[in-house]
Every structure is written in C-alpha cells, then in structure tokens.
Amino acid sequence: MGEKLTIDSTLRCDVLVIGAGGAGLRAAAQIGELRPGTKIIALTKVTSPQKSHTTTAQGGMAAVDPKDPVDKPIFHIFDTWKGSDCSADQNVIKKVCNMGWEEVVWLERNGMHFSRTEEGRIPKRPFGGHMLNFGETKAFRACYEADRTGKGIMDTVWNESLKHGVNFIGQCIATEILFKDNKCIGAIIFRYPEGKFLAILAKATIMATGGKTRMYLVSSNCRGNTGDGLAFALHAGIPIMDPEAVQFHPTGMVGPGILASEALRGEGAILRNKDKEPFMERYAPTAKDLAPRDLISRAIITEFREGRGLFHEGHNAQHVWLDLRHLPKEVHEKKIQEVCSFFKRFVGVDPEKDLCPVTPTAHYQMGGIPTNEFGEVQTDTQTIIPGLFACGEVAAASLHGLNRLGTNSLLELITLGKVTGERVVEYLKDAEDPEEISPDAGHIVFDQFSTYLNAQGTEKYAQIRETLRNLMMEKVGIFRTEKSLLEAIEGLKSLKERAMHIPIGITSLKANQDLWQIWELNNLITVSMVIAQGALARKESRGAHYREDYPERSNEFNYHTLVSMPEFNKITLGKRPIDMSIFEAKGERFELFDYIERKY
Amino acid sequence: MSKSYTITLEISRYDPDTKLSWIQTYQVEVGGILRFVDVLRKVNDEQDPTLAWASSCEHAQCGSCGIIVNGKPLLACELLVRDAVEKFNTQKFTLKPLNIAPVLRDLVVDLEKAYDKVHEALPYLIKPAPPHPDGDEYRISPEKLDIYVEATRCINCFCCATACISSHRNFLGPNVTMANIVRLMDPRETAKEERMDILYREDGVYRCHTSRACSFVCPKEIDVSHFLALGKEGKF
Ligand SMILES: Cc1cc2nc3c(=O)[nH]c(=O)nc-3n(C[C@H](O)[C@H](O)[C@H](O)COP(=O)(O)OP(=O)(O)OC[C@H]3O[C@@H](n4cnc5c(N)ncnc54)[C@H](O)[C@@H]3O)c2cc1C
Ligand code: SF4
Ligand code: SF4
Fold it and tell me: What does residue A487 show for φ and ψ, rounded to 5 degrees?
C-alpha cells in the first residue's frame, strides 16, 4: 500500500445532513420550506435516500387526531411514559405526541399514499402498549400505509427534499465531524465509487445516521446499520445516552431476523408455544399479544428456557409460532401484504394456512446522542455544542427512555426532524461560514484506513464479525447479569485488538467493500462496548434492559446513563436527570406521571 | 438439517483500477434455505473477500441488491438457493451486474446514476390540490386508491429497466415512467399538464413496445406494463 491518504477536495454548504433517512430528510424538507435557497447537502451510505432503512418500517406511525371521539393526546402521552418504564423525558413526550397529527397531515398533503377507510380517511390500527383511558383498552392510533408505512414516509421526505433542491451524495460514509473552537463546522466523508475523501464545510450539521443493531446475531436492521454516527460522536468526546437500552422485537422471522411487524398482532395474530398455547395470556392478562415488546421478548425466552419453545432445523434456532390463520383473507391480501410475502419467500410458509416461526430480533436502540427537545446536541454536562444537531434513531431526546412503543419511532423521526429543521433555521440567522478546515482534519480516518490497509494478521473479518454477533446476543442480549457483562467487556477488548490485524483483500481505495466493512466492524465493536458498559452500570431492570441479578426497577436509577469513551474502553460515566415536567406541573391526573408501577 | 446443495457460481468481475473484466467460478456448499445474499457473503467469508456485491435491507424493501441470474434480473436477497435450483433447473448459475448503470466493481453498479432518471420524473406532488375544508387530510376513496396503489409499491430496484430493451436506448424506462403515471392518477396532483409533457416527451411512454418484460421480472409483482398501457391510453 503506497497511496498517501489525502483530502481530495472541499465542498461548502449551509447545512450538512449526515444521514438522509426519515429524520434527516424531514429536517431538510423543513429547512427548504422555511428558508428557500438554503444550500443543503444530505449524505447516505446507500445509492439513494429512498433506500434508507426507514423504508423498511412496516406497521404505522402513532398519532392522535384531536377530533377523535375516544382517543386523546394525553392517553398517548401516558402510554409513552408508562411504556418507557418511567425513564423518558416528559417535555419531549408531550411535544411529540401533541404534534403527531399535524405531521400525519403534512405527510399526506405532500403525497404519502396512506391506506384509506371507507370514508376516504387515514385508517388506524392498534399497536402494543397504546391504550385508551390510561391503560384500559386498546387504542386505534397507528396511522398506516398497508404494512409499508416506512416506505410511504421515506418516499415523501425524499421527494420533498428533492423538490427543495437538496443535494444528495450517496455511497459515502461520513467518518469524522470537524470542529473549530468547539463549534461543529462539518465532516469528512469517504466516497465508495472513487475511493476519495472530501471535506464538507457547513454552518450547521445534523446527525441522523439511524439505527445500529448489527452487532447482534439476529437483527432486523439493514447491512449498513453499524453505529457509525455513534462511533464518530464518541471519538469527538460526545457521550452516548442510555446505550444499554436495546430493544428486541419479539417477532423476527426465524433465520436472518427479518421483522414480522407488530401490525400482525394489531390485526389479531396470536403467539403460541410448542403446545399451541396462547402463552401471552399468562404474562400480560390485559394486553396479551399487544403488551410492549420488552415484556413479550422476555416471555418468549422464558418459554424457551422452560422447554415450551420449538426448534427450527434449517436455521438451527429456537422459535415460537405466530398464528395468522384465522385472519380474514382481505387482511392477508391488503393490510399485511408485504409481510405475508416475506413469510412465503424467506421462510417458505403460507401465513393463511401455516403457523409462522418467529423469534426475538434485535431491532432498535432507544439510546443515542443526547439532545434537548430542539435537537441540539449536548455534552456530558448538558452544554449545547454550537452547530451540531441530531435527530432520529441515532439521537436520544429522549422520547423512549429505556423502552420504545411500536409506531413511536416513525412519529419521532417526523416530529423531531421538523423541530430540528426549525432550530437549524434559527441558528443560521447569525451563523458564519466556517473559514478553513484545520490541517489535521481527516487524520482519524487516515489512521484507521492505513491500519486496515496494511494489516497482516491471519484471523479473517468473518471470524471476528461472527464472534462479536454471538457474544452480544448471548451476553448483552435480552437477559443480562454482571458476570455476562464482564465477560462481554473482556471479549470486546480482545476483538478490538484482533480487528486491527484483519488481512485485507484489496488495497485500492476504489469500491473497496472489504475496507468499508472492516471500518464498520470497528464501529460495531466500539458501540458494543458502550452498550455493555452502560448495562453493567445500571444495576436494576427497567424497560428493555433486564438484569437477572437485579430483576426490579430501583428509584436509585431514576436518571439517564451517559457513557463517554473518547478512546476505546476509556469510560467516563455521567447522568442526566429525567424530565418530570408533567408531574411537576400538578395538572389533571398528574399522579400518573410519577414513577408508577408498570403492569399490562 | 434441511437439504444442502453444491452450487457453481460464474460471476462477472470487473476491476476499476486495471479496467479488466473476467468471469470467475466459485463452488459453494450451502443450505437450501439460504438466500443469494447469504451465498455471496459466504463466498466473501470463506473464499474470496475481494468479490463486491451490493445489498442493504436484505428483505426486498430497498431494491439495492439487483443482479442478473441466468439471464433474469432479480433481487439477490429474495432468491433462496432451493428455489433457484428448482426454478432454473440447474445448480450452475451465472451472476452478472444490472446493465442500466456503470459497473463500479464486480456486481456493484452505480445506481446513484440510474436515479438521476427517477428525479427527472419529479416523483413529488408538483402542485398539490388545496387542502380539505376541515383542514386535515384529503379524502381519497379506497376504490380510487386501489386503481393505482400497486404502482406506489415500486422500490426502484431497476430490474424492470434491465429487462426492458427499450430502456437501454432512448426510453426513460418502465419504473421512471410509472412514477410519473402514479402522480397523474393521484387526485392530489394538479400539475397534470406538466406531467403529460414528461409522459409524452421524446423518451417518454411511447418508447414502450408492450413486450411486458417489465411485469414479468418485477420482484414486487407489480404489473408495470399495465400502468404504462394506461399512460398510453391517457386513462388516469
Ligand atoms: C424492519 C423495521 C420495521 C420498523 N417498523 C416501524 C414501525 O412500524 N413504526 C415505527 O415507528 N418504527 C418502526 N421501525 C423503527 C424505525 O423505522 C427506525 O427507527 C427509523 O426508520 C430510523 O430512521 P432514521 O431516519 O433515524 O434512520 P434511517 O432511515 O436508517 O437513515 C439513516 C441514514 O443515515 C445514513 N448513514 C448511516 N451512517 C452513515 C455514515 N457513516 N455516513 C453517511 N450516512 C450514513 C444511512 O445510509 C441512511 O441514509 C422499524 C424498524 C425496522 C428495522
Ligand atoms: S417496477 Fe418493480 S422491477 Fe421495476 S423498479 Fe419498481 S419494483 Fe423494481
Ligand atoms: S412493456 Fe414496455 S416498459 Fe415493459 S419491458 Fe416492454 S417495452 Fe419495456
């Protein structure tokens, strides 16, 4: 490897969006709408924003129509608080839930192809943990486009950004964010096709790189969800909030873990064990199959442990059944068409006739880059970093606390995406153009790439990737203990070291998949370490974080975890208080917004 | 264990540095329920880390992994080994990149370039109709939506464009043309004239000669040529 790594050229813009997914482009569209002519560049790893992972979201986006005769925003606010196991921020919950419906209307007016009721209106379906009258009965609250709601949303925000002249750069990775006098001034990116580094200077930068659960053996996430954004934020000294909060969705298709949406259970599907027993009745007598995800995932693993699971030979994995056979043909064909076709194609079963094998799949990370309710990124002391914003799954405001309700993520992307866009427009009023990049810009990625390109070890990329995925699934998965976490941390240290020596196939920089994947694997190991460290520090069980050695929730841990790791395994832990503003305002039913018991 | 197969892959390769192309053969032992993306990953893991291929969601919702297998454009994530053996009645497969954009390396093509055409179809609502008097969503009857809803499922994988001989020359292509037709059928779009200009322009819908190859290959089973026919008839 003789090539010297250098920055090929510098681009300038007003706003740089790192991550052209649902959240990033909702923000971009808002900026375009409020401030026409703003020069926006939006980056994505895939070939078009349309292919971002938001496009795979299935079930729906929660929103309460203020004219709804039975549902009210306050019920949604309560459900989100309770669903989070009392660890989300009440100012954020309130803001997001109150904005939901106007954002559904925004999407629809801008061309989203929602399904329709007989009256020609947007239909709604029930989803886990969403209930009427403070937890009494299921609410119809998830607005949907068949079982491809994410595609409808992604297409719409991509289209609107296109309309406002946003400049998309695909097939690239942002590798580090740039600062001058503590202000964010843009990022370094690396383009896959030409193998070139570019610097992008911007007055404001929005991080919206999305999810990151590819470190788990079974995951519903796309190939590129490797936690890049968190990794370079950590490197820049920014903490990650609540990293231990990883959501396992109870119904991944056995095998690769492709998602079988909760919408199926919303439409009436039932989970059954080996004896065909509808076992959720035992774990959540009221909500049953529509209990929140953390509860159902633990119930399934408990069924496995107690010998009531099944074994899938082809995929060498345990599973339970999802029963859809009793649903009307019309539902199969129109409302859950995509997921039914996934079962047919990927598992070879026909949901109209056969039971479908499902198992929990790593799905979503509640934690992320800490922001306030306006999408402004905060340091470990809650100081705002000028010029840097974050929204979407990579960020934690926090709407979900330690557990997210289904359909609340699409809601978050769109509402907080918009809010972030508005804040950026405010910020641009007196923001100045960054002058120049500092001479050492790019050194982080140059060092990384040089190491990878010159490595001479023998242990292959695949071995390390597989060891990581098994380690995280077993030791930092649905059930955790101090012992398993300490073992995971030791394992991760060793993997980090071993990953420096992976022999590389191609040393050219052009379209080098191997290089790109080794870089991603390092990010996965980095993010895995903060997940394990956060999980070790939280000696209680709350939401999706379950410690077998501390099975109860404890008031001692009524705060958000902040984990900083500027260098690998150099950990500093911090705390951020949980916002209790609804409780503190002492308004109607305020007592429900205390640290209440969570039963379904 | 479910049935295993020993399959032979003949893969078109291309090196952007030397500009050389060649065919490379791999033999792989795989379980029948693995997808072609899993097979390609297995080749990377066990035999050749240099082989480049594309994918993202790996469950047929993003359209990043289109390739040509034994002459048919399809999504590598959707094709299970046992189905491929049955469908093509062989255990030998030729894998080629899609031919609608420049090859970057091996099976990876520059779809970003192909998307430039999608942008030309102006996939957004150019001029949305005024809002409903109640201030909320437009009313669209389910019957009306049913007429064009299938076309909204397109993921721009460009399999149809690869199969369509016209689209290689002077045709915007089936998926791009359909994106415009969707908005012509969408009751919320008022800029119909501008859309018709795109539909009937030189490289517009009349370049389609109704071979139906597009409908035949579409992994989402969209009857693309039906929508193009409606476009030609002006039925929207
Ligand atoms: C299968 C599935 C189904 C789901 N269903 C639902 C649902 O029904 N309802 C719901 O509310 N939620 C659902 N979710 C969750 C929700 O879809 C996601 O949380 C959400 O789409 C994330 O959106 P985002 O904009 O933050 O990120 P994404 O849409 O993932 O976009 C991230 C963008 O950042 C880019 N990027 C990443 N790293 C880099 C880098 N280093 N450099 C440059 N660009 C980068 C990516 O390429 C992409 O363009 C689902 C999730 C999955 C996986
Ligand atoms: S119409 Fe079908 S084949 Fe063509 S791009 Fe769309 S999804 Fe792919
Ligand atoms: S029917 Fe028309 S668009 Fe479809 S493949 Fe044939 S020529 Fe192309």
Answer: -65, -40
Phi, psi of A104 (to 5 degrees): -60, -45
Question: Is the bond preceding A48 in cis, omega lying within 30 degrees of 0?
Answer: no
**Cα distance between residue A486 and residue A471, in whole Å:** 12
Task: Report CB contact under 8 Å: A461, B45.
Answer: yes
Interhelix angle B192-199/B174-185, nearest 10 degrees: 160
Q: Let me know whether B120 and B13 are in one domain.
A: no
B228 CB under 6 A from ligand 3? Answer: yes
Query: Would the CB atoms of A151 and B131 count as touching at under 8 Å?
Result: no
Report CA Rg, chain A: 23
Query: What is the tally of structural domains in chain B?
Result: 2
pLDDT band at residue B1 using 50, 70 and 90 as cut-offs: very low
Q: Å from B169 to nearest chain A CA?
A: 22
| Domain that includes residue B8, residue range | 4-109
List, for residues A326-362, the tens digit of each pLDDT value: 999 988 888 888 888 889 988 889 999 999 999 999 9
Predicted TM-score (pTM) of the model is: 0.96
- A525-571 pLDDT, tens digit per residue, is 999 999 999 999 999 999 999 999 999 999 999 999 999 999 999 99
Domain A253-359 architecture: Alpha-Beta Complex (3.90)
Quick one: which of A395, A378, A407 has its CA closest to A27? A395
What ipTM goes with this model?
0.97
Q: Is A325 a catalytic residue?
A: no
Of B92, B109, B126, the position where a domain reaches its end is B109
Cα separations in angstroms, B159 against A500, A505, A550, B68, B100: 39, 30, 52, 8, 9
Query: Is residue B45 within 8 Å of A469, Cβ to Cβ?
Result: no
Distance CA A141, CA A406 (A): 11
From the CB of A54, is ligand 1 less than 6 Å away?
Answer: yes
Name the nearest CA neighbour of A111 among B194, B36, B185, B232.
B185
**Interfacial A residues in 500-529 facing B (CB < 8 Å):** 504-506, 508, 510-511, 513-514
Residue A145 has a pLDDT of 97
